[in-house]
Amino acid sequence: MPNVIKMTNRSLTCYCGGERDLSKVEVQCCLCLRYCHQECLSLSTGPMLPFMTNYQFVCKDCSQDKTDENFLKKNATFNQLCTTALANLTQQSATQTFFSRDREIIPFIDEKWDLLTFSQKKNKPTLHASVYKALAREDLFVASEINGEVMIALRERSLERIGPTNEKPHEFINSNINRAQSPGTSNLTNSLLSSSNTISAQSNQSGNGTFHGSSSANSVSSLANSEVTRRTSKRKLANENSMNAKRRGEVPKLERLIPKTFPPEYPFNKEGYRYHLAEPDPHSPFRQKFDETEVWAGKPIPGHLYRTFIETECLLSLNDRAQQLKLNDDRLTVTGDKGYCSVRSTHPVSHGAWYYEVTITSMPPNTGTRIGWAQHLANLQTPIGTDKFGYSWRSRKGTIFHEACGSHYSNGGYAENDVLGFLIILPEVSHPDVMLPRKYKKLPLVKFKNYIYFEERDDLRAGEASLKATDGGKIIFYKNGVNQGVAFTNIYEGNYYAAISIYYGATVSANFGPSFVHPPTDSPIPWKPLTDSIPETYCTHALNDLLFHISHDEQHVDFNDPATIGKNSGRNSSRDRSRRLATLSAPLFE
Predict the structure, then answer these.
(1) Which residue among 18, 170, 296, 306 sits deepest, i.e. has the most Cβ atoms within 10 Å of its Cβ?
(2) What is the pLDDT of residue 570?
(3) What 3 state SS string does 487-548 have?
């Protein structure tokens, strides 16, 4: 006759009988749901923090011989890491419940990483992206924008309810007892699991039965019972089909994903193709039409529903660079590898005077750099200045380059620890189209690692044919604050990026402002730091999107005017609306 342990009268307090102390580490039994103080345990749990949920624990009273405890710590998911971090921040603060995502939550996880989990810490961009994604879980966290900053709080306001995630405690128990169980022992385990349902009912009455980020004891018993008959297929909810059925015209969830920062994995601009991170355009007037029409069923999502994602800081671009170059986490320092290859900044300029600095951090023997300004069509796998789209200054002999033609410029060039300045002066252009960025909404959309990108194909022949020299445009280089003279005059019109080319293992650190080591004092016109191009980039992209929407807007029909109805009788038929909608991604100006 197997032993049957009655758990209905089991105490939910620690062995010592003391009350809970949320400021100290406590562990919860996955069967009886009691909390035990870490110092009251007979085994070592290793380093832990309060409110950790990535473990499974069986207390003495629930164990097989009622003397040994079982404890298993698991790798923490980012949902669990964020829950633990917010719970600790909330407990340490007497009044605050919302915490800054960037100033408090991420630094806490970064500092306490070794206590929270034993998995290897990710690099900074990947860590930030993973935390951002986890904090977007609306069932676990509440987000609010306070004073222009994203603040996060736990949806579960009662810290006493935060406990471990006990998905399959029966597997954990079976792995910690004798694998060659006798029939009696197997029945004992089953009786423990089945009787946990009674404990769940009692604990729910006391208010301690539900905890954030974990399964209830009811699910424990159901999981145990499900082991009697193993399922060969995934369980489906009754309304799963209706919930997952995609409505006609609905953009899938992954394709609606709004990037908060540049993704950790991205496609590089190479082999004649360029990729621009996209985000849903909330101002697109065609959203409803896209949902209502059937013309796009089974076809790619039209580009007019998205817009380009613009970074909030002026940095070196992650994907607009040669793949061989290595960027530091701050995205302002770049190191070369093997032959010449290039990287551009994230924000361009098209008119006015602009300045940025670089410091040659390291330049070992047989390495070199070419630094200057380049348009988007400049080849990233060659040094800047080998084509018509770039102008550069070489470290060796101080030669300047444009269209692969080198000219003597300054004596001696520059070397390690030199601070170089780059000033570009672009006069106002006659055609406003030159000042606007390229038109992205007419480009096809592609998906890469669950993010959406505009895919653009480079047309070098058309780009070269459209180049037009400016009247008075010039580039001036500075070395340690000393003007080296005008390097180029009457440069081509266009949008220019700060550009750095590195040969083998040299390292360069960029400074896009607003403060500089040697700001130019002899500029013929007032200049701006490259960081000031951020608001202008926002404005030009917004204007470009507005022009697109206006040029494709429909004419409104007054149904109270018979003449208007007669003139437009066929215009607003279902077929005609579909035909016009199918042309929304056509170029703005033919």
Answers:
(1) 306
(2) 43
(3) EEECCECCCEEEEEEEECCCEEEEECCCCCCCCCCCCCCCCEEHHHHHHHHHHHHHHHHHHH
